[in-house]
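name: query_chain
kind: protein
chains: 1
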Amino acid sequence: MKLKLEYIWLDGYSPEPNLRSKVKVIDSEYKITSLNEVPEWNFDGSSTQQAEGKSSDCILKPVRLYQDNSIFNLKELTVFVFCEVMNPDGTPHETNHRHLLGEEDENMWFGFEQEYFIRQGRGEQILGHNTQLEPQGKYYCGVGKNVVGRKFVEEHLNTCLSLGINITGTNAEVAMGQWEYQVFSKGKKKAGDDLWMARYIMEKISEDYGYEIEYHPKPLGNRDWNGSGLHTNFSTHKMREVGGEEYFNSIFKAFEVRHQKHIEVYGSDNNMRLTGKHETQSIDKFSWGVSDRGASIRVPKNTGLEWKGYIEDRRPASNANPYEIIQQIVISLNLAEKLSETHHKMYSNVDMKNINTMIEKYKTLTTEELMKDYINDDNYELTEEMMESKGNVKIEEIKFDLNGKQRAS
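structure:
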């Protein structure tokens, strides 16, 4: 029996990589069921921005298999082999962001909401925009004359399901010619793999229709049409089973502190989309809110009721690399864990009743009031002098007498 192994990988282009593929035909008497049965392969990295011509071999390391007998009307079995790119010495290539996620963690759950536009052809108009259109409003989850491209969308959905990609839903979006599908996965690496594979299947089916899939976050420019995002829903075991308002506040604080780090990998031209309009927060601001689709982080209503469950990061653009999104979320969650532990240690052995009595008696400021005072002090500036090391400066010993007068020795 002839088997087609379709190897798929990400190239080295920036700011976002492109999908690449090539096919190896082998003879096999049985169906492939394990990665160990699929050989590594190589490719010309000088043609993908991943190597120089004088030393151009890059290695394709199989990491996940997707297969179904009926897809694309092929009589022979096609196995889709999703790969990481490696150097000839077996080390991860510098463009390989997947390996940076470390060991798999199936307790981390991700749900990506992939929005996209469909173009009539390469560089052509958005589907349905070749005539006078009413303002957006009727097209979201529309039917009949208010949508275009449904046959294509449903073929993509059915193909993904047949390959074991857990598409949980699809719908027409706010703008004409704009659609969305949702992918749910358990595991950091699996989540990224499944989304990239769903994108690959969409690109391949688009060849039969002559379409171009548009992932730019604002393809219609500065007009009154929504852009496209990659809203990222996520949760950990602790978020789902333990939770607590204090812990979630630590998450929000960590994500706020690292806001710029997230934005740096959340997709190119995302500034055109994150304007504070069309269900977005401004790119230079961070906010969270229960059921707030205009916030950076949306807290679903059910999560906010008991402070257990998932939350949604609405900042990523539709063209973002899911591996880089996941990496930043993991880093921020680790920071949140440290913040939560520190806060717990600070207050676990403190008699808060006695502290409050002292605050009232001596009219001192609480920690929250001090922080608010610093945040709202527009004249406060951290100068270079303040940042300089004082390691060689003689320390004055400050003593106090019982009358409250200060004297230095």
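note: Residues 103-342 form a domain with the Creatine Kinase; Chain A, domain 2 fold (CATH 3.30.590.10).
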